[in-house]
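Lecture notes, continued. The same structure-token format from the folding unit now serves as the input rather than the output. Read the line below as a description of shape only.
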């Protein structure tokens, strides 16, 4: 099981955010997110938005820290990327 998280550099709602992804499956991603207490509403198309104050929880839970470009590369290579223009099946 490998989950990836990028640094909390994405601003929104007065906070900074990270993206949490899997390079295996959405099932793996949902299971991991639940295990660290991420609410289902934090899921957006192909990733979970993780606030900066929960970043350490994700890493402690086993998420691998990578840069944003690497995270996107891995998500795309796994065939799990769902851009806004391509809805979920």
């Amino acid at each position: 099981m490998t989950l990836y998280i990028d640094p909390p550099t994405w601003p929104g709602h007065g906070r900074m955010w990270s993206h949490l992804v899997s390079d295996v499956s959405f099932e793996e991603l949902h299971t991991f997110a639940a295990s660290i207490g991420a609410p289902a509403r934090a899921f957006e198309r192909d990733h979970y938005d993780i606030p900066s104050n929960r970043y350490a929880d994700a890493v402690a839970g086993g998420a691998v820290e990578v840069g944003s470009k690497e995270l996107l590369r891995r998500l795309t290579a796994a065939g799990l990327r769902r851009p806004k223009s391509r809805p979920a099946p």
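Point for the exam: The radius of gyration is 12 Å.
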